[in-house]
Design goal:
The chain is α/β, with parallel strands linked by helices and 291 residues long. Bound molecules: S-adenosylmethionine. The site of S-adenosylmethionine has 24 residues, from loops.
């Protein structure tokens, strides 16, 4: 006997779920991504003993259960990521950007921020690149901050554990064997790598984790689903924490053009962005403040 397919969620239930996601994260769940809602929420419904999306929405409204809300938000976020995603960006980082920062930063401090880091592949990819040239960074203080609103993604990132499928996406076999250890069916980043990265659950709209200025900021494939006002406020935040000589990378489909006056196309690194100052005096002031 063929069992009947579950009834599709009511419009009201869908609105409650997308409303919660947007209010918490700024992410707008567009029509073309709404199809995945039900699949994404199935484990949450199972954990909380709820029959369908309508029951889930009703409980969200009636119970005001923070644990349920967090589970729903975590499940609806798009955490797609991979090691060395957009390889040309990492090639440029390794060949040009990191050497330039090493040549020009007299304070011998390198601060990197992976904003919207998901399960950590981006931050681990940079850590691997830095480790490969560690002899050149002797006497440097290197800090890598990696933040994401998803508590589940940050927990996984911090654990350093990745499935066989995850490591096959972008990680060269040599890097896998050098920087990861097999643990059961998974691979775990070794202590040396994990200790380089400070993973923090943090919302870009109520940020607590970033402090001071960063030399390299990656905020890739995060802004895509924000509305224009939200995007602007993230750019304000990134500008606030960007060293005057910082290099900013966005995702391939993202740009600052027409969205922020604080950044401009980087004069040297194609596809990257640099701080833009309204006047020469402004730039000089910013540099003076850095010391
Ligand atoms: C598609 S992933 C991109 C991951 C990584 N940057 C990359 O390019 O591979 C987008 C990440 O942004 C995070 N995110 C969405 N809204 C956020 C917010 N308001 N604050 C912090 N992170 C957020 C999501 O949880 C998700 O992990």
């Amino acid at each position: 006997m063929v069992s009947a397919a579950p009834a599709p969620p009511s419009q009201g239930a869908t609105r409650i779920l997308t409303g919660l996601l947007e209010a918490r994260t700024g992410q707008v769940l567009s029509e073309n991504r709404a199809w995945r809602t039900e699949t994404a929420l199935r484990p949450v419904m199972r954990t909380h003993g709820l029959a369908d999306i309508d029951a889930l929405a009703a409980k969200l409204v009636s119970a005001r259960d923070p644990r349920l809300e967090e589970d729903v938000v975590n499940a609806l976020l798009n955490n797609e990521s991979s090691f060395f995603r957009d390889l040309q960006v990492f090639d440029m980082l390794y060949r040009d950007v990191l050497p330039q920062l090493r040549d020009t930063k007299r304070d011998r401090v390198l601060r990197v921020w992976s904003a919207g880091c998901s399960t950590g592949q981006e931050a681990y990819s940079i850590a691997i690149q830095l480790r490969k040239t560690m002899a050149l960074w002797r006497d440097w203080r290197i800090e890598i901050l990696a933040t994401d609103i998803s508590t589940a993604a940050i927990d996984q990132a911090r654990s350093g554990a990745f499935s066989q499928i995850d490591v096959q996406r972008g990680l060269a076999i040599g890097d896998l064997l050098k920087w990861f250890e097999p643990v059961g069916d998974d691979w775990k980043a070794n202590d040396e790598l994990r200790q380089m990265i400070d993973f923090r659950a943090d919302n870009l709209f109520t940020p607590k984790a970033p402090t001071g200025l960063y030399d390299l900021i990656l905020c890739r494939n995060v802004l895509l689903y924000f509305n224009a006002d939200r995007r602007k406020s993230v750019f304000d935040l990134l500008a606030h924490h960007a060293h005057p000589q910082a290099v900013l990378f966005l995702g391939a489909g993202e740009t600052v053009i027409g969205q922020s006056d604080d950044f401009q196309a980087h004069p040297t690194f194609r596809g990257a962005y640099a701080r833009r100052f309204a006047s020469v005096a402004g730039a000089a002031g910013a540099l003076r403040n850095v010391g």
